[in-house]
Design goal:
The complex is a heterodimer of chains A (117) and B (110).
Chain A lengths: L3 E4 L2 E4 L5 E7 L4 E9 L5 E8 L5 E2 L8 E7 L2 E6 L8 E9 L8 E2 L3 E5 L1
Parallel strand pairs in A: 2-11
Antiparallel strand pairs in A: 1-3, 3-8, 4-5, 4-9, 5-6, 7-8, 9-10, 9-11
Chain B lengths: L4 E3 L2 E5 L4 E6 L7 E6 L6 E6 L5 E4 L2 E5 L5 E6 L8 E8 L5 E3 L3 E6 L1
Parallel strand pairs in B: 2-11
Antiparallel strand pairs in B: 1-3, 3-8, 4-5, 4-9, 6-7, 7-8, 9-10, 9-11
Classes of the chains: A mainly beta (117), B mainly beta (110).
Amino acid sequence: GAVVSQHPSRVICKSGTSVKIECRSLDFQATTMFWYRQFPKQSLMLMATSNEGSKATYEQGVEKDKFLINHASLTLSTLTVTSAHPEDSSFYICSARGWGHSLEKLFFGSGTQLSVL
Amino acid sequence: TQLLEQSPQFLSIQEGENLTVYCNSSSVFSSLQWYRQEPGEGPVLLVTVVTGGEVKKLKRLTFQFGDARKDSSLHITAAQPGDTGLYLCAGGGTGNQFYFGTGTSLTVIP
Protein backbone atom coordinates (compact mmCIF):
# COMPACT_ATOMS: atom_id res chain seq x y z
CA GLY A 1 0.00 0.00 0.00
CA ALA A 2 0.92 3.63 -0.30
CA VAL A 3 3.30 4.91 2.32
CA VAL A 4 3.96 8.41 3.53
CA SER A 5 7.17 8.94 5.44
CA GLN A 6 7.43 11.82 7.88
CA HIS A 7 10.67 12.90 9.55
CA PRO A 8 11.73 13.53 12.17
CA SER A 9 9.35 11.68 14.48
CA ARG A 10 10.43 13.74 17.45
CA VAL A 11 12.38 16.96 17.79
CA ILE A 12 13.36 19.08 20.76
CA CYS A 13 14.68 22.54 20.07
CA LYS A 14 15.48 25.78 21.80
CA SER A 15 13.19 28.77 21.59
CA GLY A 16 14.03 30.94 18.59
CA THR A 17 15.36 28.20 16.36
CA SER A 18 13.69 26.92 13.19
CA VAL A 19 12.63 23.35 12.64
CA LYS A 20 11.97 21.62 9.32
CA ILE A 21 9.65 18.63 9.02
CA GLU A 22 9.66 16.50 5.87
CA CYS A 23 6.81 14.52 4.39
CA ARG A 24 7.54 12.14 1.54
CA SER A 25 5.26 9.94 -0.49
CA LEU A 26 7.26 6.80 -1.15
CA ASP A 27 5.37 4.96 -3.85
CA PHE A 28 2.97 7.43 -5.40
CA GLN A 29 2.86 10.98 -6.61
CA ALA A 30 1.12 13.30 -4.19
CA THR A 31 -0.51 16.19 -5.98
CA THR A 32 -1.91 17.51 -2.71
CA MET A 33 -0.47 17.39 0.78
CA PHE A 34 -2.12 18.52 3.98
CA TRP A 35 -0.48 19.66 7.19
CA TYR A 36 -2.26 19.28 10.51
CA ARG A 37 -1.54 20.25 14.06
CA GLN A 38 -2.82 18.31 17.01
CA PHE A 39 -2.88 18.88 20.77
CA PRO A 40 -3.27 15.97 23.22
CA LYS A 41 -6.68 14.29 23.06
CA GLN A 42 -7.87 16.82 20.53
CA SER A 43 -8.62 16.52 16.86
CA LEU A 44 -6.40 17.33 13.91
CA MET A 45 -6.60 20.97 12.93
CA LEU A 46 -5.90 21.64 9.28
CA MET A 47 -3.14 24.20 8.95
CA ALA A 48 -2.65 24.35 5.21
CA THR A 49 -3.26 22.60 1.93
CA SER A 50 -0.27 22.30 -0.35
CA ASN A 51 -0.41 21.66 -4.09
CA GLU A 52 2.72 20.70 -5.98
CA GLY A 53 4.37 23.66 -7.64
CA SER A 54 2.08 26.30 -6.17
CA LYS A 55 1.78 28.26 -2.96
CA ALA A 56 0.09 26.61 -0.02
CA THR A 57 -3.39 27.64 1.03
CA TYR A 58 -3.42 28.43 4.73
CA GLU A 59 -6.41 28.11 7.01
CA GLN A 60 -7.68 31.16 8.83
CA GLY A 61 -5.58 31.99 11.85
CA VAL A 62 -2.46 30.13 10.67
CA GLU A 63 0.51 32.44 10.16
CA LYS A 64 2.06 31.74 6.78
CA ASP A 65 5.30 33.46 7.75
CA LYS A 66 5.52 31.32 10.86
CA PHE A 67 4.75 28.00 9.21
CA LEU A 68 6.50 27.86 5.86
CA ILE A 69 5.30 25.13 3.54
CA ASN A 70 7.11 24.02 0.43
CA HIS A 71 5.78 21.44 -2.00
CA ALA A 72 8.40 21.57 -4.72
CA SER A 73 7.98 18.04 -6.04
CA LEU A 74 5.28 15.40 -6.32
CA THR A 75 6.90 13.35 -3.57
CA LEU A 76 8.06 15.88 -1.02
CA SER A 77 6.50 18.60 1.09
CA THR A 78 8.19 20.37 3.98
CA LEU A 79 6.88 22.38 6.91
CA THR A 80 9.31 24.77 8.56
CA VAL A 81 8.38 26.23 11.93
CA THR A 82 10.33 29.46 12.02
CA SER A 83 11.57 31.03 15.24
CA ALA A 84 9.84 28.39 17.28
CA HIS A 85 8.41 29.22 20.69
CA PRO A 86 7.06 26.97 23.45
CA GLU A 87 3.49 27.57 22.29
CA ASP A 88 4.43 25.93 18.97
CA SER A 89 5.02 22.66 20.79
CA SER A 90 2.57 20.21 19.31
CA PHE A 91 2.11 17.07 17.24
CA TYR A 92 2.32 17.81 13.52
CA ILE A 93 0.99 15.34 10.93
CA CYS A 94 1.15 15.41 7.17
CA SER A 95 -1.04 13.55 4.74
CA ALA A 96 -0.94 13.06 1.01
CA ARG A 97 -3.62 12.69 -1.60
CA GLY A 98 -2.27 10.69 -4.48
CA TRP A 99 -2.67 10.86 -8.20
CA GLY A 100 -4.63 7.90 -9.40
CA HIS A 101 -5.86 6.94 -5.97
CA SER A 102 -9.41 7.51 -4.81
CA LEU A 103 -9.86 11.22 -4.19
CA GLU A 104 -11.47 10.49 -0.89
CA LYS A 105 -8.53 8.57 0.54
CA LEU A 106 -5.59 10.03 2.30
CA PHE A 107 -2.33 8.50 3.39
CA PHE A 108 -0.87 9.77 6.63
CA GLY A 109 2.60 10.27 7.96
CA SER A 110 3.38 9.00 11.43
CA GLY A 111 3.62 12.48 12.86
CA THR A 112 6.28 14.71 14.41
CA GLN A 113 6.23 15.62 18.08
CA LEU A 114 7.79 19.06 18.43
CA SER A 115 8.89 20.28 21.84
CA VAL A 116 10.23 23.82 22.11
CA LEU A 117 12.12 24.59 25.29
CA THR B 1 -12.32 25.83 10.64
CA GLN B 2 -13.94 22.55 11.62
CA LEU B 3 -17.14 21.80 9.78
CA LEU B 4 -17.76 18.54 11.59
CA GLU B 5 -18.90 18.43 15.21
CA GLN B 6 -18.57 15.19 17.11
CA SER B 7 -20.30 14.13 20.28
CA PRO B 8 -19.52 13.18 22.87
CA GLN B 9 -16.05 14.68 23.14
CA PHE B 10 -14.99 12.25 25.86
CA LEU B 11 -16.42 8.85 26.69
CA SER B 12 -15.38 6.41 29.38
CA ILE B 13 -17.22 3.11 29.58
CA GLN B 14 -16.88 -0.38 31.01
CA GLU B 15 -15.83 -3.30 28.87
CA GLY B 16 -18.84 -4.95 27.27
CA GLU B 17 -20.97 -1.83 27.02
CA ASN B 18 -22.28 -0.38 23.79
CA LEU B 19 -21.69 3.17 22.60
CA THR B 20 -22.51 5.54 19.77
CA VAL B 21 -20.45 8.46 18.49
CA TYR B 22 -22.08 11.14 16.38
CA CYS B 23 -20.64 13.34 13.66
CA ASN B 24 -22.77 16.27 12.54
CA SER B 25 -22.42 19.09 10.05
CA SER B 26 -24.51 21.73 8.36
CA SER B 27 -22.70 20.93 5.12
CA VAL B 28 -23.38 18.14 2.66
CA PHE B 29 -20.49 15.77 2.03
CA SER B 30 -19.97 13.52 -0.95
CA SER B 31 -18.45 11.04 1.47
CA LEU B 32 -17.32 10.78 5.06
CA GLN B 33 -14.52 8.79 6.56
CA TRP B 34 -14.04 7.47 10.08
CA TYR B 35 -10.56 7.14 11.55
CA ARG B 36 -9.12 5.82 14.78
CA GLN B 37 -5.93 7.27 16.19
CA GLU B 38 -3.55 6.06 18.88
CA PRO B 39 -1.39 8.58 20.79
CA GLY B 40 1.73 9.57 18.88
CA GLU B 41 0.60 7.96 15.63
CA GLY B 42 -1.23 8.99 12.50
CA PRO B 43 -4.95 8.26 12.05
CA VAL B 44 -5.94 4.89 10.62
CA LEU B 45 -8.87 4.73 8.22
CA LEU B 46 -11.75 2.54 9.42
CA VAL B 47 -14.38 3.10 6.77
CA THR B 48 -15.64 5.40 4.02
CA VAL B 49 -19.37 5.98 3.59
CA VAL B 50 -20.59 7.39 0.32
CA THR B 51 -24.32 6.89 -0.16
CA GLY B 52 -26.96 8.64 1.93
CA GLY B 53 -28.53 6.14 4.33
CA GLU B 54 -25.66 3.71 3.86
CA VAL B 55 -24.81 1.34 6.68
CA LYS B 56 -21.46 -0.43 6.87
CA LYS B 57 -20.36 -2.99 9.41
CA LEU B 58 -16.81 -3.76 10.44
CA LYS B 59 -16.92 -6.55 13.03
CA ARG B 60 -18.34 -4.87 16.15
CA LEU B 61 -18.41 -1.43 14.55
CA THR B 62 -21.43 -0.15 12.62
CA PHE B 63 -21.21 3.04 10.59
CA GLN B 64 -24.17 4.94 9.20
CA PHE B 65 -24.30 7.87 6.80
CA GLY B 66 -27.30 10.16 7.16
CA ASP B 67 -29.87 10.32 4.38
CA ALA B 68 -28.98 13.95 3.70
CA ARG B 69 -25.23 13.18 3.83
CA LYS B 70 -24.70 15.76 6.56
CA ASP B 71 -24.17 13.43 9.47
CA SER B 72 -22.83 10.05 10.40
CA SER B 73 -22.67 7.76 13.39
CA LEU B 74 -20.38 5.06 14.70
CA HIS B 75 -21.80 2.39 16.97
CA ILE B 76 -19.57 -0.02 18.84
CA THR B 77 -21.06 -3.17 20.31
CA ALA B 78 -19.55 -4.85 23.36
CA ALA B 79 -16.63 -2.47 23.61
CA GLN B 80 -13.22 -3.89 24.46
CA PRO B 81 -10.14 -2.20 25.96
CA GLY B 82 -8.50 -2.46 22.54
CA ASP B 83 -11.13 -0.06 21.20
CA THR B 84 -9.65 2.73 23.31
CA GLY B 85 -8.49 5.62 21.15
CA LEU B 86 -9.43 8.86 19.48
CA TYR B 87 -12.20 8.45 16.89
CA LEU B 88 -12.39 11.02 14.14
CA CYS B 89 -14.82 11.60 11.32
CA ALA B 90 -13.53 13.48 8.31
CA GLY B 91 -14.63 14.87 4.97
CA GLY B 92 -13.68 17.17 2.16
CA GLY B 93 -14.28 20.92 2.24
CA THR B 94 -15.71 23.09 -0.50
CA GLY B 95 -12.26 23.57 -1.95
CA ASN B 96 -9.46 21.08 -1.93
CA GLN B 97 -9.27 20.87 1.85
CA PHE B 98 -9.84 17.83 4.04
CA TYR B 99 -11.20 18.45 7.51
CA PHE B 100 -11.48 16.33 10.60
CA GLY B 101 -14.26 16.37 13.13
CA THR B 102 -13.73 17.61 16.66
CA GLY B 103 -12.93 14.07 17.82
CA THR B 104 -14.18 11.63 20.44
CA SER B 105 -11.75 10.24 22.96
CA LEU B 106 -12.91 6.78 24.02
CA THR B 107 -11.62 4.90 27.05
CA VAL B 108 -12.81 1.35 27.64
CA ILE B 109 -12.15 0.19 31.19
CA PRO B 110 -11.41 -3.51 31.67
